[in-house]
Amino acid sequence: MKNILFSGVCTALVTPFLDGKVNFPMMEILLRRQLDAGVKAVVVCGTTGESPTLSDDEKLALFRRCKEYTGDDCLIIAGTGSNSTEHAVYLSKEAEKCGVDALLVVSPYYNKATEDGLFAHYLSIAHAVKIPVIIYNVPGRTGVDIPVSVYKRLSRIPNIAGVKEASASITKIAEIRAACPDMPVWSGNDDMIVPTLSLGGQGVISVLSNVAPVETNAMTMTALSGDFDTAAKLQIQLLPLIKLLFCEVNPIPIKAAMKLIGYDCGGCRLPLTSLSAENHQKIKKYLSNE
Description:
The protein is an alpha/beta fold.
């Protein structure tokens, strides 16, 4: 297998806002909480971090300041995806200059590229940088499900580090593992962490671990140790919270949940809106009973 960038939990961090601007002091608080929970990798400016409504300047400032804060204690994985290959290459090169450890690159959305187009997109980014690149497949948002045949071609590129697979298909994960045994796979779905690890996955890039980093890390590391009976019980225990955190489009619920547990990260930028009163009450009730 390729050198494994990380095993275990990588938290896809929310981006905290205050008065409409990035709240850097709160970001440091969030990073410290992850480090204290034993999490060794975070994604900055991913889907959960509201990357579509962050400017390039905001993203680069976040990449730089997060890496300066964590140093060697945590991998900073920068979300640099775009539906423009040229823009993705630019942002990836600039992120590398900021000192990040790796990139998370979502597949081009809306364009609906062909297999050759998907391959050329990732090849262009991988060749433009020296740091590892994680492919991010989330067809529910992008409109394209990256075929296993493309993964197989991409797996031969030295700095393609693996894939965050968020297709919500355990069959797809099994097919990737069969076709690309040397390519690390991380679950992109919190409700499929243990099933993914049972097929040889390396961990999860998680929304859940914003709220419950200790519990998510315990479940994941238990599965990685081979104790799938205990890990499965933990997965089932966390399922109600996972479902609540996706009762509306991510990151609307997770931001509400963070405020409820004492970390006010502000609201989401439009076009995302506030959590409905009904769902807010459901999350509040669950968290208050924990």
